[in-house]
Every structure is written in structure tokens, then in C-alpha cells.
Design a protein that fits this description.
single chain; 141 residues; mainly alpha; Apoptosis Regulator Bcl-x; 5 helices; 67% helix; BID; Bcl-2-like_sf; mitochondrion; cytoplasm
């Protein structure tokens, strides 16, 4: 039921007390997703293969918890954010980087889809929940 969507075609909904948006907000979510996808396409070219391969190795390590892997992802995002133009909102850039990294990890090792998605979703909910809510509210106005 959970979907990883970065192209704005369809929206997923968080559950269990996490970010939950009513179906009437689908158009707002599509607008935001389209903006994030455009930024993601720009970032996609900038992410070095060594960063992706390093994260793949962390995801493949069954001894690491999702929280440990999320810390590795957070570190990679913080490193990559240094190359992002200063005029871009840092939280937005970090959110997009996390999504693009997840996409690249899954493209590299498709069997990591579920673990990568679940870890990234938890990371985004922990780090960017308020920012996502603010983005939705801003577009609605």
C-alpha cells in the first residue's frame, strides 16, 4: 500500500499518527510533488556514485537498524547539501536529496526497495514533518 512517488502522479498517505492528508488535498500534493521532482532531476546529476554505493552497503548490512541507516543517510544528505546553491531553501533541498538518494539506492539494488523506502519515510517524518506540513499549508493558501 505504501508507494514511493517522486513524480507527482499519485500521492501516498502516511499512517499511524504520522502525516495524514485528506484526499481533497491531492491537487496540493501534486503541485508540491512536481516542484520537488523538478529539483530532484537537477540534483540527480550531482550525486556521486560513491555516495550511493556507500549507502547501498549500509542498507545491505543486516546488522544495522533502520535508525542506524537513517543516520548514515542524514550524514550523506548533510555532505551533499554543501554543493547545493545557497539561494535554495535548505530543508527543501535536504528533503529532495533524501528522496533522490533513495531512488538511486533502489535503482542500484532493487531488492532494497522496502527497506530503503521504510527507512527514508521514517527519516523524512522525523526530520521534515513540520516542513512538509508548512509546504502543504503554503500551497493551499
Amino acid at each position: 500500500d505504501d508507494e514511493l512517488q517522486t513524480d507527482g502522479n499519485r500521492s501516498g498517505h502516511f499512517r499511524n499518527g504520522e502525516l495524514g492528508l485528506a484526499p481533497t488535498n491531492e491537487e496540493v500534493i501534486r503541485i508540491i510533488a512536481a516542484q520537488l521532482a523538478e529539483i530532484g532531476d537537477q540534483f540527480d546529476k550531482e550525486i556521486q556514485e560513491r555516495v550511493v554505493n556507500g549507502l547501498v552497503q549500509q542498507f545491505l548490512n543486516e546488522n544495522l537498524s533502520n535508525e542506524d541507516i537513517a543516520q548514515y543517510m542524514s550524514r550523506a544528505v548533510r555532505e551533499l547539501i554543501q554543493a547545493i546553491p545557497a539561494d535554495m531553501e535548505q530543508e527543501k533541498a535536504m528533503l529532495v536529496l533524501a528522496m533522490v538518494l533513495t531512488k538511486k539506492i533502489v535503482n542500484t539494488v532493487p531488492s532494497l526497495l522496502q527497506r530503503a523506502f521504510n527507512t527514508t519515510r521514517a527519516y523524512m517524518n522525523q526530520q521534515f514533518h513540520n516542513y512538509i506540513v508548512e509546504m502543504v499549508s503554503a500551497v493551499k493558501q
